[in-house]
Amino acid sequence: xxxxxxxxxxxxxxxxxxxxxxxxxxxxGAVEGGIENIFEDGYNSLYKIAIFFAIVAAVYPKFxxxxxxxxxxxxxxxxxxxxxxYFQEKPFKVESEGTDSISxxxxxxxxxxxxxxxxRITISRTENGYSMEGLRKDVFLYxxxxxxxxxx
Length: 152
Description:
- By secondary structure, this protein is of the alpha+beta class.
- It has six helices and five strands; from the N terminus they run H-H-H-E-H-E-E-H-E-E-H.
- The chain has helices at 2-28, 35-38, 44-64, 76-89, 109-114, 136-151; strands spanning 65-70, 92-97, 101-106, 121-126, 129-135.
- It is elongated, with a radius of gyration of 20 Å.
- The two termini are 39 Å apart.
């Protein structure tokens, strides 16, 4: 279900972004008039664009979100304390804390909106260690920092 919600969000994100770009081009005079003048097939192009957006939005969550194993031998309490300290230095705050996981969200509303409220990073205890889950870019950016904080 989470995958479907993400795909729908990205479809609308792409549609809104493209609409804003086309509107901006019309406002600055880079293109003239309406849809018939902007796109080769006029309004029929909108269906083709929507199909393209649907395909990209359906695939993007598969590649845009990852789970990465954290390389550490520390106990869960050490991991939680170190992760909290690390993310407090970053633009994140603790969203929720459970017995086997802790999740962080961005503090700033602009940052949350640019990521379409898909800014959650979750650190979980697994059978064979710990894992970090979230947006690919964020996970790869912050996982190393968390590992350094935990292991030092």
